[in-house]
Model the fold of this input.
Amino acid sequence: MTSKMFTKILIANRGEIACRVIKTAKKMGILTVAVYSDADAESLHVHMADEAIYLGPSPSRESYLLGDKVIEAAKRTGAQAIHPGYGFLSENADFCRQCAKENITFIGPPVAAIEAMGSKSAAKNIMEKANVPLVPGYHGDDQSEVILKKAADDMGYPVLLKATAGGGGKGMRQVWNGSEFSEGLAAAKREAKSSFGDDTMLVEKYLTQPRHVEIQVFCDNHGHAVYLFERDCSVQRRHQKVIEEAPAFSMSEDLRSKMGESAIQSAQAIGYRGAGTVEFLLDVDGSFYFMEMNTRLQVEHPVTEMITGQDLVEWQLRVAAGEILPKTQEELVINGHAFEARIYAEDPNNDFLPATGKLTFLQTPIESKNVRVDTGVRQGDEVSVFYDPMIAKLIVWDETREKALQRLSKALSEYRINGVTTNIDFLYNLATCEPFAKADIDTGFIEKNHDLIFHNDSQTLANELPMAALYLVLSQAKNAELAAAKTHDPHSPWNNTNAWRLNEASIHPFTLSHNDIEYQVVVEQKRQGVSSYYLISIASEGAVEITLDCQGNITGDLLQVSIDGYRSHATIVHCDNRISLYRQNGVFNFIHILPDCGDSTSDDAHGGLVAPMNGTMVSILITAGDLVEKDQPLVIMEAMKMEHTIRAPNKGIVDAIFFKEGEMVDGGAELLSLTAEEE
Ligand code: MV4
Done:
């Protein structure tokens, strides 16, 4: 078979995997065609591709799952091959057949291999014939209770009843002793009948602490087959992988080669071509058993790429184009250790309910040889209800498992997302808990360590509260400098916002709320030569007031502070009156409670001197130096299509006005300063 590399491929997928495949195609000088639905019209994968074809409405069944439309798109653009990614059409035998019929290369295994692995029981029969180890058990046609019970008695309890038509953990039932067998079987059959319409059962020896260890295999069209070592994917929740790693911890060379050879045997037993994954259950005694074979590129393939230095999508393209495998088994070596964490828009504190929303703020860790981010979204994108809520895959590498794990926890703390609930804190807790560091892991890890992972210890705010208050003072000063710079007299004293008053301390009072608890924070600005420092006093219900000596500065979204000699920093995201502080130990969300500025309709408005929200200064009713009465209208702002009258909170002298008519005003910005008459 001669090889001729494609000049143009179509990626029949979306999100991170579509972007990932496009990246490799670009690296190889191959043109790319994306396909998209309504919801994805402006998505990253469409922008990255050279061309894009609209498929249809957002629901996958009306777009990404329409094989005819995908093939039509390939023909329309002259794509010679289709990369299906994972999910969607990637293991659809009919689609694979359609591609062949239209003389379009399906970048994946032959249709026969997809069909062979499509049925879990058929797969087990094929593997049994190929001497691939199966879990001791019975998967015969005689489904009489007496035969099934005898099989269970012979192999010893506990046993696992599995629906042949099931998969992914569905239709499994443990039976711990003979006396429970009959009732357990009846229940398992009922569930299988209702879930799959087929109550055929298989009986297996139940492994109580298995690990999920899978082998990456690759076969070309010239009879070559290699394994690219293993991945441990035991950390799962309801059969969804959460964190994967390569290589598997405490894997001996002997066991590695036995599992690798067994995986190759599995692949060759079905005439496999391309990238495939053979999943095994690894028991505590080192025995391993075939579970299933996946005939697609797995989500977690990047950890294998990181430890072998191979680009598996490039391998897929080369093999699909008829080339021989880029490496021999002897040329493949493991270098270092890698983890992958799946960043999801979901709420771990609400049973992992998928979350939707706009990514109003998105900051990823800086990528390097140690940190890789595979994502399909950008700041401002919507996480929609139509597709899997994966935001990204965070992949890290280092020379050892311990160093790689350190990279993972640091990178997770640097992954900052606002606008949608994510599982980042859950992943951080999981990656930093001791059992994970000690690799005390099997498929029950999350359940066993639930309290460690879901701990919601109340966040101490000792540093974060003053940081938030200091940020508000510094950002108001910065806003005023920007506003002043636009005026005809930038250096006028009326433009400064340090609340400076002649012969008076500059005081900035704030109310900040965190987890529904309000804190009164007063920032007193002190001058020290040409620079300032701040005394920050914090009081809350029933707590002793504390005062801290602070300094700080803001550069972009980075706040750097010194608090009573403690120097640290935080990334700040300020949206309306919400302030998020991203620190290495997690995110701290505050709400800046603005004084009630009343509005044009209520009679008893009590003027505050800060903008209630982002808006525009529409009219200024007083001038600096005026003596005003309590509740006298001072300025009028327009915000959210309403006019807000800011009134004098008490009788006093107007010291300074910080904005001009027509200027934009940030929520929380000080509009003017007033010295009460009695002061
Ligand atoms: C098992 C098992 C223990 N003993 N079979 C779960 C779904 C499917 N992949 C097979 N699964 C299991 N089969 C025997 N004989 C435990 C599991 C299992 C599991 C396997 C891999 C990864 C995560 C898992 C979570 C729960 C149960």
The CA atoms of residues 293 and 397 lie 26 Å apart. The chain has six domains: 8-107, 136-205, 207-335, 337-456, 464-592, 609-676.
